[in-house]
Every structure is written in structure tokens, then in C-alpha cells.
Amino acid sequence: MGYFKELPNVAVSSRLIEKRSSQEYVIAKNIFRRIKILNSISDNISLYNKYQIYEGERPDTVAKELYENSELDYVVILSAGITNIRDQWPLSNHFLYEYALEKYGESQITALHHYETVEVRDQWNRLILPEGLTIDENFKIDGPGNQFPVGTQWKAIRETGSIALSQNTLGGSASELLNTIAIGISNYEYEDRLNEEKRQINVLKPVYLQQFLEEFKRIMLYDRNSQYISKNLITTENTTLVN
Predict the structure, then answer these.
(1) Is the peptide bond before 149 cis (omega within 30 degrees of 0)?
(2) What's residue 243's pLDDT?
(3) Cα(41)–Cα(39) distance, rounded to whole angstroms?
(4) Which of 1, 22, 56, 234 is buried deepest, with most CB atoms within 10 A?
(5) What is the pTM of this model?
(6) Which among 209, 150, 156 has a CA at the least distance from the CA of 181?
């Protein structure tokens, strides 16, 4: 990952057993040196394109495609606002299944996670119930049979086709929901949805790449302070020194 090449160094007092002096230091990359795109850049949505992460893609492969350099994977990660690559980058289908299997167990991976409403409209195409509301199995509403005027008709719009609704009461039990105004979402389907939401990210437009890299390198440099050694190196307090 090219990001670590850009990280400045820090001199840390040695904790190695074989050290010869309390004044020995170890040079390491300062992984705590945080970096974010300047507000003037990150707040300007016109600098970004929407990108759909496809199956098997990684930050380095996206960087190769967009910027012709796989080592610019950190540009992809930072411009997408990702702070935890393990949790925020979508899993492949194989690893998603393995994750869900470990989380829920084989017997529960296809078990019900929750119910969601389907879209319900009346005969004049007015919206009665929006789709996608999370409900429990006791959810119910007055059906078209209780509506005025007499003869009002509703339809539940499902993936398998529309269902005519004429009952006085809709819902009230799991079977009544699943046969009319709701669908069941399994544990795996729930995890798959969360994973799919991660596939849509913002990526910096290639035309602004050089500006980003220059600003990135500038922010990485140290300002002068009591620990300053050079623009790329500072030291930490040595608590092992004895006065």
C-alpha cells in the first residue's frame, strides 16, 4: 500500500532487550499520523465520481483502473471516507456467506431476521403503505373493507405480482402478513443488503489526483515543535532516561 511510503517517521525509545543504552531509539512509521482530504475538497461533491465496487475488486485494483497505479489504493480509501477497511469494504460472495455462517450458524442463516412492508396502493393509485418499513409479526392496519366509500380496492405490489386486497384487517399474524402486505427477510438476506450498500462509494476524479497527492504530502510533513528533528522525523519522550 503506497500510503505507508508517505507516512513520516518517529523515533521511539527502544524497548528491545538487547539495547545497550537508555538513549537508544527505534525508527518507525508514524501510523498515528492521520490524514483527511481538506474540507474545501471533501465538501465539493463535484470533485468526485460515484463508483460501484464489483465482485472481487480491491482498493488496489480500483486504483489501477482509475489512476493507472495500484499503489494509489489509499486515494480510493480516503476519498471514499473509509476508516476501517475490514468493516467498510464489501465482502466477496464467498466470504459474505462464510461471515454469515459464522455469525448465525448453519441452522439460523436462513431464519427470519425481520419483516418488511410491500407497497400498497388503492384503486386510484394513491399510496396507502410504503415499502421497506421494518415491522413485527403483530403489525396490522385497517384494510380496504373498513374504508369509505364501500367497494374501495387495494393492491399489494410484490415481486411475484400484485395481490388484490379486500380484507377488513390486514396483518395481525406472521402468515397474514406474508400472504398480504409484508415479506420476510432472512438473516443472510439482511447481511447481503448491508454488504451491497458498501459497494457504492465516492472516488476522486482523476483530473484532481495530482492536487490531492501534493496536498497529502504537504500535510504529512511535520511542523517545528519540541520533538522536531526534520520534516519527516520527530522523536517521542524517552521515559527511560534517568536524571
Answers:
(1) yes
(2) 43
(3) 5
(4) 234
(5) 0.77
(6) 156
